[in-house]
Amino acid sequence: MVGLIGLYGSVAAVVVFGENIDVLDKSLHRKKSHSESSSGAVSTASATSVLPPLEDRFGRAFDYVRIAVTEKCNLRCTYCMPEEGVDFPDQNAVLTGPEIQRTVETLAKMGVRKVRFTGGEPLVRKDIIEIVTNTANTPGVKAVHLTTNGLLFPKYAEDLLKAGLTGVNISLDSLDEEKFESITRRPGLDKVLESIQCALDVGFKTVKVNVVLMRGFNEDELHDFCEMTKDQRITVRFIEFMPFDAHQMWETGEHFASAANLVDQIEKFYPGIKTASGTRTEHHIFQAPGYEGKIAVIPAFTRSLCGNCSRIRVTSDGQIRNCLYSDDEFDLKALLRKDGCTEEDVVGVFRKAFDEKHRDGFEAKKKSTEKKVNVADIGKGRTSMTQIGG
């Protein structure tokens, strides 16, 4: 799945928190208009009005949405999904392309400028190119990104670029073939490495590698991953292990490596390393002297980045989640499928969700615990990251 799937990436997996917008001129890839077709393409010509921005009670504005387009994945990463897999929702339970587009159009009017598609593995969805195209053509949207485990990426890379995709995150948790298969329960290291090079060769402006660092497993590869930035204009992002897994890897406590510890090690590797510019998610970001790329550390569990949160999360089955650590969900899908659903209705459910957002992930977790919800089972029966989504 993506580096922790979308958190951790796609589902090889990485959950990446609110990012700044990295704008790429998409004029070469966009069509001037998009008329509705039998294939499900949606017109965006009318999506020009502006609504008050989406804000929470703490004054934070939300300009970034992560939409999981599927729970399905062609990997079975140990921290993301049990080996036997999970019960995937039937096709009718997943948001359709037009429903995704209606959501994007409404959010764009409310100030959302960046959209990321996650999963599961988003490239297993057959209409993903159409979804990206419609999103890229939405007035107000400035950046469209995708998180993938890389196995299918070379097949779709050029079409994704032409569709208007501006950035890609590729999940990779080990450079050792044996360890790669141990964590993903599938072969494919060569294909993932090929995908990283493919993204650069095709011409994506933003190419990132998501790595879930786990003590006792791949922490000894920290330097090797950092060295990937020497001659490649990529950002290698180390993400703290998260307490979301279906079979309680987290409960042992043996795999957690803190962001602070990772930063200390990186600074020792590269004396004189300088801080660099990055996204709000990339709480610690560096560039080694003379290196092409950047190195980032994301405190996904220690949560020092919550104060800058700017993200909205929508699950593949159409639930709005205002915080990864909260058990609260708001049913967008049922609303979209209700006869007579208006734009005002859609705006209303998003405003309600973010009016109830907690100050940070610690408070959200505490509230879930008070409701006697096991954090490992967070999400009303969602017991793996592939079900929670990016």
UniProtKB/TrEMBL annotation:
Q: PROSITE patterns attached here?
A: MOAA_NIFB_PQQE, RADICAL_SAM
Assigned EC number: 4.1.99.22
Q: Which cofactor does it need?
A: [4Fe-4S] cluster
Question: Biological process (GO) annotations?
Answer: Mo-molybdopterin cofactor biosynthetic process
Signal sequence region: none
Top EC group: lyase
Q: Output the InterPro entries linked to this UniProt entry.
A: Aldolase_TIM, Elp3/MiaA/NifB-like_rSAM, MoaA, MoaA-like, MoaA_NifB_PqqE_Fe-S-bd_CS, MoaA_twitch, MoCo_biosynth_MoaA/MoaC, rSAM
- Which UniProt key words apply to this protein? 4Fe-4S, GTP-binding, Iron, Iron-sulfur, Lyase, Metal-binding, Molybdenum cofactor biosynthesis, Nucleotide-binding, S-adenosyl-L-methionine
Per UniProt, residues of the Radical SAM core domain are 57-274
Q: Please give the Pfam families that the UniProt record associates with this protein.
A: Mob_synth_C, Radical_SAM
Per its record, the protein catalyses: GTP + AH2 + S-adenosyl-L-methionine = (8S)-3',8-cyclo-7,8-dihydroguanosine 5'-triphosphate + 5'-deoxyadenosine + L-methionine + A + H(+)
| Keyword Flavoprotein annotated | no
GO MF annotation: an example: GTP binding
SMART domains on file? Elp3
Q: Which PANTHER family match?
A: MOLYBDENUM COFACTOR BIOSYNTHESIS PROTEIN 1, MOLYBDOPTERIN COFACTOR SYNTHESIS PROTEIN A
Q: Sorted alphabetically, which NCBIfam families does this protein's record hold?
A: moaA, PRK00164.2-1
What's the protein name? GTP 3',8-cyclase
